[in-house]
Amino acid sequence: MKTMFHLPTNVVFVSLCSITASSVAYAQTDATSVILQRLTAGIQKLENSCGEDIKKFCSTVTPGEGRILFCMQAHEDKISPKCAFDLREAEQELQEVTSQLEQARNACRTDIEKLCGQTLPGQGRIAACLAAQSASVSPSCSAAVEKLRIK
Questions:
Q1: Residue ranges with strand state E in the chain
Q2: Distance in angstroms (rounded) separating the CA atoms of residues 92 and 97
Q3: What are the structural domain ranges in the chain?
């Protein structure tokens, strides 16, 4: 059975990190922790189920920028069924997290502009700004962040 994996490359992970830092910042500890736990669990699961396949088919590939994933896709007809299943599960989890983060980013956009418009982005500065002004954050932003914490 041939399956196609559509996991995004490192660009999505960088986007996830920046969205998390800028959009759901005032609940950074809780929401970020939940997201990181979900993604870390998925990565650990993939390491367990796909480790041998990666060693077998992709040991000469330099990690980073999605190269291992592309290698696994090139050998998708040869990887173990467990690895293929877990890759599909990881893809679904990542898509769900990405969707929730996008919703939070959209819900918090006005708050970021209004409350932290003068704050230089990067290194968690917007997160710290929103955290400092959490009492002024809109209900829609609060609800989107709360949704991130629940899973």
A1: none
A2: 9
A3: 10-149
Nearest-CA neighbor of 22 among 131, 135, 149, 150?
A: 131
Distance of CA 21 to the CA centre of its chain: 12
pLDDT digits (tens, 9 = 90+) for 37-96: 877 887 888 888 999 999 999 999 998 887 887 888 889 899 999 999 988 888 888 888
Amino acid at 11: V
Q: How far is the first Cα of the chain from the last one, in angstroms, to the nearest whole number?
A: 31
**Residue 12, token pair as written in the block:** 């999505």
What percent helix, strand, coil does the chain show, rounded to 5?
A: 75, 0, 25
Residue with the two structure tokens 């990881």: 90
What is the 3-state secondary structure of the chain? Answer: CCCCCCCCCHHHHHHHHHHHHHHCHHHHHHHHHHHHHHHHHHHHHHHHHHHHHHHHHHCCCCCCCCHHHHHHHHCCCCCCHHHHHHHHHHHHHHHHHHHHHHHHHHHHHHHHHHHHCCCCCCCCHHHHHHHHCHHHCCHHHHHHHHHHHCC
Residue in this structure with the two tokens 């939940």, named with its chain if needed: 34
pTM for the predicted model, two decimal places: 0.64
Element housing 70 (H / E): helix 67-74
